[in-house]
Structure prediction request, 142 residues.
Amino acid sequence: MRNLFVLFAFGAGFLAAVSCGRGPSPRDVTIEFVGSVIEDDTSLVQKYLDLDAMAARRMSEMSADSTVAFEQLKRQILSSLTGDGQTRAQWMKTTPVVDKQSIRGDSAQVELTFLDRAAGKVEYYKVFLRNTPQGWRVQYFE
Prediction:
């Protein structure tokens, strides 16, 4: 729960943005996405994640002799972000901090940091989003 406090403390503008008729910003979507992973809310993970885009990117990074099929890769990505998945387990042990966003047209980047005080580690990510007719969606993070 303490993890979500920091995460959502930075997202105070989310309700204001939604109530003003605008959709959530890329930063707000990142907050919601990370929170849905930590809380294991598969439906929200799927709402905020462009799973096809993430799988396509990962496929392009694989070696040509890889035997992983596109649909199998999508299942692996979703499995990592939910339940006992590796990414979810890692994120649950940390305090997420969502920071600056930069928007260029219908693309955006959001800075995301995970603080693991017990291990004395800090991990930095960039979350890449695309604005779709359904709103901002996470395409990948690295």
